Every structure is written in structure tokens, then in C-alpha cells.
Amino acid sequence: MSKIFKLLAVAFLSISFLGGCASQIYHDYIMSGQIVTVDDKQVVVCVSDTDSIKEHQVFNVYRTVYDPLAISEGEDGYSREFVGKIRLGKTKDKHFAEATVLDGDLVRYDMVEFDRGF
């Protein structure tokens, strides 16, 4: 009975965490968006909803990196690396906004997260 309970608990937690990546709550409060185009110091960011963001807000930008040499038990080899900051400009429509690169060498598909100051 104890083994079955543990197995069900692990399965439930795994589904919850994996489902969290696609949830609207995760997208609204943790991952704010993704860079879709880069042109020198100007980028276009896809965000969940431009109604909740304001011009001149600063966002941190992260890149997902993979280390194929991660061999310790339990390691998956993926990590986030801070790569820079952007300042939002004008919104293009409900899901896209322009931004200016403040720091870093950013590329398409980098993740953008709101800088909450902590």
C-alpha cells in the first residue's frame, strides 16, 4: 500500500509541475514572455497579455542552456542562464511589444521575466 501511495504521489506531482509550464498562472506571473525577433538593440517580445504591462518596464532575460556532461544522478542537464535586460517600448497588439536591449547579447527564443526587484 505504501509503495502505491508513493508512486501515485510522484505521478501527481510530476503532472502538476509539467502542467504548470503551460498554465496561464505560470505565464502571467513567472514567465512573462519570449523574444521573437532581434534587430541590433531592438527586440520584439511575445507576452501573455500586453494589458498587464507598461511602457518602460524592465525585464530580465534568461536563456535555457543544456550541459551534455551533466552526469550526476537526478540532473537533467538543463539550466537557466541570465543573459541581459530589456526595457519595454510600445505594444504592437494584445500579445506583442517592442523593447530595447539594455544589457546583454540576446537571441530569439530567450525567456523574458519581469524584474520584481528581489
Textual characterization of the structure:
- This protein is α+β, with helices and mostly antiparallel strands and 118 residues long.
- The chain is built from 2 helices and 6 strands.
- The protein has a 6-stranded antiparallel β-barrel.
- Strand 4 and strand 5 form a beta hairpin.
- The longest helix is centred in the first third of the chain and has 19 residues.
Strand content: 35-45%
* Helix content range: 10-25%
Counting DSSP E segments of at least 2 residues, the number of strands comes to 6
Structural class: alpha+beta
Whole-number radius of gyration?
18 Å
Biggest sheet architecture: 6 strands, antiparallel, barrel
Head-to-tail CA distance between termini: 44 Å
What is the 3D form?
Answer: elongated
Q: Output the number of helix runs.
A: 2
Strand order of the largest sheet: 1-2-5-4-3-6
Low-confidence stretches: none
Mean pLDDT across all amino acids:
79
Write down the secondary-structure element order. Answer: HHEEEEEE
